[in-house]
Every structure is written in C-alpha cells, then in structure tokens.
What we know:
Elements: H1 27-31, H2 36-61, H3 64-78, E1 85-89, H4 96-103, H5 116-124, E2 129-137, E3 141-148, E4 153-157, E5 160-164, E6 170-172, E7 184-186, H6 194-203, H7 205-208, E8 211-217, E9 221-226, E10 231-233, H8 238-255, E11 262-266, E12 274-277
Parallel strand pairs: 1-3, 4-7, 7-8, 10-11
Antiparallel strand pairs: 2-3, 4-5, 5-6, 8-9, 9-10, 11-12
Helix pairs in contact: 4-5
Amino acid sequence: MTTVALKRGAPAKRRPAPKARAKALPPRLVRLPVTPTRFRRHVLLACGGLILVATLVGLWIADVPQRWWQSSAQAAARAGFEVRHVDVSGVTQTSKLGVYAAAFEGASNSMLLVDLHAVRERLRALPWVADASVTRRLPDTLVVHVTERVPVALWQHRHHLYVIDRTGATLTDQRLERFPHLPLLIGPGANDRASEVLALLGRFPKVGGAVDTATLVGERRWDLRFTSGETLALPEGALPAATALAKFEAVERKHGLLGKGFARFDLRMPGRMTVRVGTVPAKANAKDIVI
C-alpha cells in the first residue's frame, strides 16, 4: 500500500498563463498607411464624383442634351443641311408621290434628324415595295432605292380582282388592264398557295402555258381551266398533282386532247382519267385514250 504525504499550507502549483499574442496589423496598412491628407483627398474626390453624376442626371432629366442636339440640328438645317431633294430609283409601279411622302413624313427635315430606319420602314409598308434602302447625300438629298414586288397572278376573291405577288400579298386592284398576261387564281386561300400552283405549271410548260384559270377547290386541290375551254381536275397533294399533270401532258403530246371538243378531264383517281365530252361532239374518241 502506497502512502502519500500532504504538506499543509503549501500553495498549489499553477500553470503559467499563456502569453497574449499581439494582433498583427494587415500588411497593407503596415506598408501603406493612410495619412490624413490622403484621406481628405479621397473624400473630396468621391464627393466631387457624386456631384458630377447628380448634375449629369439632372441635366438629362431636364432634357438639356436633347434640346441642345435639336437646336444644333435646326441650326445645321438653316445652314443648308436640310432635306430638299429625294433621288428615287427602282420605281415602276410604285407612286413616286408615295415615296416622297414617306421620305418627308418625319418631324423634321434636318439632315441630322432624319431617321433613315423609320423612312425605310414607311417605304416597305407601301404595297408594291418589297424592300428599300435609304442613305444621306450631303448637304440636302436623300437617296432612295426601291426593290418592287413582281406581279405573278390575278386573284379573284369575293367577286373582286387583285394583283398578287408570289407570296400572295395583294399589290393593287386598280387598272388591271395592265396585266392581261397574268393567270387567274380563284377561291379562298388561292393567293397563299400561288407559288405552289405556279411552280407546278412551270414544271410542265406545254400544258401549263395553256392554263388560263386555276381554281382552289375546298382549299385542298386545284381545277385547271385551259384557254381552249377544258377543265382538268387534279388530285389533292403536291406529289399526286404533279404525277397527274405529268401523265396528262404525256397523253396530250400523244393524242392532242386540247381543243378537240372535250369538256372535262378528271385525274383524281390514281391511274385513271375520266373524260367528259362537251356539247360539241369531240374530234377524238375518249376510248382510245390510254394513260
């Protein structure tokens, strides 16, 4: 057994308190101390920047820069930099008065204030204009070049005739006697499918060149009427219609069907053509026609 001897009155041993570590200053502050003079300079610069920004914002709110620019532009106009002439090219169907009106419609005729993009958009809103370019020619001329739409057909809709381009856009309904050579499209939606039927007729020029009228039936398929009076009923769909028209052109080359007294050819059934004879006896026998 171990015996421990305790001495009364002996103080207990204490561990030495850890030495407080001195807080190191950031290296930047140690190397680059800010002096009172430099601090005041930074404060003054910051205040000056804020005052400058506030002044500029106030001037902008008060519309000072805009009014100064307007005054400068008007002074330039009085000095001769004002739109006085419009040089127009590319116009055949478009009224030049309409072009001039689009060019001079802006709030000011000062050359510095003319919005070329706005003039171009006003020109493109004219029925015959597909596109336009507008440039300045100092000191007083706007140069306008117009690209016009190409008329490709007449469209009959609700007993009214319009000239249309390939996209189906209506161009005019006035002085239609200027376009006697254009084919006639009939029916609701026929204008939107003008490019389709014109491309179809262009693939088969022998019969396509003899077509006088194309009628869109039920907004699904085409009936073609030839200048000689016959009607050709095509099936629905681009490929079936092209196949049927190719067969009809081959039969026309072989038998000469047009102008022989037939009234109607129906190719809606694949591999079969139904022929209807007109009031005048046909000069060819329909039974001899093979497709």
